[in-house]
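As a warm-up, study this chain.
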Amino acid sequence: MQNADQPAGGRYAEAGVDIDAGNELVRRIDGLTRATARPGATGALGGFGALFDLKEAGYRDPLLVSATDGVGTKILLAAKTGRIEAIGIDLVAMCVNDLVVQGAEPLFFLDYFATGKLDAASAAKIVAGIAEGCRQAGCALTGGETAEMPQMYAPGHFDLAGFAVGAVERGALLPRPDVAEGDVLLGLASSGVHSNGFSLVRLVIDEAKAELDAPAPFAPGQSLAEALLTPTRIYVKSCLEAIRAGGVKALAHITGGGLEENLPRVLPEGAAAVIDTRAWELPPVFRWLAEAGRLPQADLRRTFNAGIGMVLVVEPGRADALEAVLRQAGETVTRIGAIAPRAAGAAVVFQHIEQTWPAVPSPS
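Now compare it with the structure written out below.
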């Protein structure tokens, strides 16, 4: 007979881990994972592993491409405000956008969710966001892991990690080795800050004494929290359409390090990306961060995406057609520059930045 003072889950529950809450979470999310099914994905939630049939997915001679990432300290802002519904989209985006730049189609995704005290309803909201991200990317949510670790995380806090696997036919791997002078740079608009630089964002919020539930100075109709927590845009379907249309030589996902550090990752030695900052307007959120945080341009360039979340390097003769393909797929596309010979070691050259971006703050 159970002692009246003993928790229903036994000593493990007394230690702070609720197995029943974990089972309830599995029950709540089962339909969410099933809704992301795609050709090749087999099995059901709850097994020890997930299977994927590449032949059923239509591949003949594929290379597998894998990526893993998290959401960083954007999670702290989501947890603080209780706006956790979309943070799962960020998690998927940070992984699958890294797959498509190599020409790979995301096939399946797994998540790791860790918290100090599991609340099945809140966790289900997060997983619903992950499932929505998978739907946007066209990949299956095949499983994951939920860890309840008392004392590891403060009440209400959690962490997320994501793992994505994609495939590309061997001859279609990107970047191509023939990136050359004259190739055009097409920039795809970001949806906001995405999921990088939030340690600096939170510092700016604190120093500016900005209220998260107050109207955003740069986004009419939204609170500051809503605007900053806008989920990372997922570029998978539009970029795959562009790749299949022909003429794409390379792609760069603009994450931490900005244009300055991510574009060189797909350029051959001796090539530079020359970017004309007059081609697009720096979004208001970044102007607000620069002014409220008195950020020098170097911080702006190397911390944030500055309004460009993905860059395609394309054949000049295919640029017009690819712009049309991307716009038809829902992207805001801008020609932001071209490839030129590299001089003096500079892999990315910004033209007119002093006239178009906020000036370096003067010493106070």
